[in-house]
Amino acid sequence: MNILAFESSCDETAAAVVRDGRTVLSDVIASQADMHAIYGGVVPEIASRKHIEAIAGLAGEALRRAGLEKKDVDAVAVTYGPGLIGALLVGVNFAKAAAFALDVPLIPVHHVRGHISANYIAHPDLEPPFVCLCVSGGTTLIVDVRGYTDMEILGATRDDAAGECFDKVARVLGIGYPGGAPMDRLSQGGDDKKYVFPQVHVHDAPLDMSFSGLKTAAINLIHNAGQKGEALDLPSLAASFAGAVSDMLVPRVMEASRRCGHGKVAVAGGVAANSRIRRDLERACAQSGDALYLPPLSLCGDNGSMIGCQAYYEYLAGHTADMSLNAYANRDIGRG
Ligand code: KG4
After folding, report:
1. Where are the alpha helices (DSSP H) in 123-211?
2. Between β-strands 264-268 and 75-81, what pairing exists: parallel, antiparallel or unpaired?
3. Rounded to whole angstroms, how far apart are CA atoms 207 and 251?
4. Residue 245 Cα, ligand 1 centroid: separation in angstroms?
5. Which of 6, 218, 226, 240 is the most exposed place for a label (fewest CB within 10 A)?
6. Distance from residue 163's CA to the centre of ligand 1 (Å)
7. Tens digit of pLDDT for each residue in 183-206?
8. Cα–Cα distance between 301 and 5 in angstroms, integer?
9. pLDDT in tens, 50-67
10. CA atoms within 13 A on the CB side of 35
């Protein structure tokens, strides 16, 4: 089954053709990051307009690179939430028109379910159940993936997403947008014990997380040093910050895995590219005996392949939509 899939939830327009869930025939992305970098964050209205400009060309390019024609498309899939509502609407409306014109099923895909699916592409042996740490610019969740379309949130951030923290601290440091990758590079060789950041524990919800205090502490530290004219050891600041984020994430996902007893831990989303978090997960899983599934860096960020992969399993579960499909800024992963 050839699925033509679209992703437009934030600042990347992506299209892909995926065969039978796990074989990626093509994957094309138009990133708008340079445009938003001018403003230090995503400007929703600009994102929507850029998606409109890019999506039709990407659809044709995805088919061309897959060596397919329109008649070879068996279904059209699209991210319908969560994300920026205007950005999502571009993908949803384009996918609706494509499915209608090609007379094939339309498959709505939850963005975070898509991120989890990136692991199926990278690891052909991986099957549910497993526990997945989903960490991106807008989401930080620990999910019990009981089946391909059967998921439950075990823990969530109470405020900011982990990726947003990296982005905001990087913005204050003036090292670029999105800030996660530059922060990661800056941290190499830094002393992760040099700066101490607060760790928050949510009373009665030990798997929940909080990042806003951590973000504020880092920003205050930078501003205070600036006001006093003190030089900061930036690699050590970045390394200590990454360590604090990792300390919030890794023990909780390991505890979730212990409780579920699946023996398998996966990670998904843009922040899954972080070298410190990957290292800490490797160490923790080596100790616990859990099998660890890390997606390659190319599949951590937003892409169309992950949507085409998850769409296959949604289709098998009967989750298709008609022309009344809407986009949702917020959507529970359990509802799909
Ligand atoms: O999954 P993604 O591409 O988009 C969303 O769905 O949000 O994630 C983007 C996020 C951004 O916050 C970016 O700074 C972060 O992933 N990110 C990283 C790294 N690479 C990307 N964060 C930490 N370390 C990295 N190496």
Report:
1. 162-173, 180-187
2. unpaired
3. 9
4. 13
5. 226
6. 5
7. 999 999 999 999 999 988 999 999
8. 16
9. 999 999 999 999 999 999
10. 16
